[in-house]
Amino acid sequence: MSLIDQLKDHMKQAMIAKEKARLSTIRMALAAIKQIEVDTRETLNDEQVIAVLTKMVKQRRDSIAQYEAAGRSELAAAEAEEIQVIETFLPTPLSEAEIAAFIDAAIAEIGASSMADMGKVMGALKPKVQGRADMGAIGAMIRAKLQ
């Protein structure tokens, strides 16, 4: 079953269970996916859907930081709840050891030896870890290894 079908199935379950917050979050995710499909005039595959969901999680984390800085804890809590719903559709996160192993393999595969090769390493890693790890944290780990 594709990820879009899973989202639609969970949307129906949320409707039946009258889970308003879960339902609105899933609808929001499906709307974002549909918007990209309309814009690009193609059906998204699971990897592209994961990229959309990952972007949605990142946006919500940024919003939480802004809401907390403004003292709006109720809005930050709502965003955190949305993150929890979205993350149920993302692959399981990688551990730091797994990320380090991926980084080491990519550095060895590319033959990276300096910071000039960081973009190549990131390009090789992105399809393998998309949706399973924070690319910002991975960038910091690559920088530490390449220096």
From TrEMBL:
The keyword Transferase applies. Keywords: Transferase. The keyword Manganese does not apply. GO terms for molecular function: carbon-nitrogen ligase activity, with glutamine as amido-N-donor; transferase activity. It holds the Pfam family YqeY. PANTHER family: ALTERED INHERITANCE OF MITOCHONDRIA PROTEIN 41, MITOCHONDRIAL. This is Glutamyl-tRNA amidotransferase.
